[in-house]
Amino acid sequence: MRPWLIGLLLxxxxxxVPLYLAYPTVDHVAAVDLTESPEEVHAFRVxxxxxxxxxDVEEHDRYTLSPxxxxxxxxxxxxxxVALDSAWIWxxxxxxxxxxxxxxxxxxxxxxxxxxxxxxxxxxxxxLVWQPAHSARxxxxxxxxxxxxxxxxxxxxxxxxxxITGSDCFRRLAPGSTxxxxxxxxxxxxEEYQALCDRVGKEEEALKEKIAWxxxxxxx
Length: 220
What we know:
The relative contact order is 0.16. It is built from 4 helices and 8 strands, in the order αββββββββααα. The protein is α+β, with helices and mostly antiparallel strands. β6 (79-92) and β7 (95-110) form a beta hairpin. The radius of gyration is 20 Å and the shape is globular.
């Protein structure tokens, strides 16, 4: 059991009363140099709200994207997030409920024709290695990875990554009304999916479903 939960549990044993804990956190993704074709790279900050609750309590993860301006730059600026994380426990003698809300920041780098790169505080100094996305499916996966929210979605984690299809892979995206920058990021992804459809000469059902879902989310 987590250390902070032990303390809360000891306090909660006095009665069936929910207890809450909040604490400040800082997450930082270091700046990185673009040494290869920087004019082709699109960078996005991703603010993640990750809820981890017991199985009886629904989770509401939320991912918000913001394009980062790289015009005339060969470097992606570092990104910092200062937040207030929280945890709760409700001990009712025979039953015990618990949950935690965490915040983190990511940077995702998209380059058409290559796999998307994700940078996080967990891998400082991670080298940029652009892996070509040769097939149409690989290029679709690169756009999926730009938007992906399944990594913190425990329901979808029951499946392997390759088995997550359609808009399920990014169903935790915030609505477009969250901010103008997030709406712009969704519009960019829609354009990339549509451009892929044009290149392959047809619209497969999975692509059409993703485009329709994203348009609805953008206008939400």
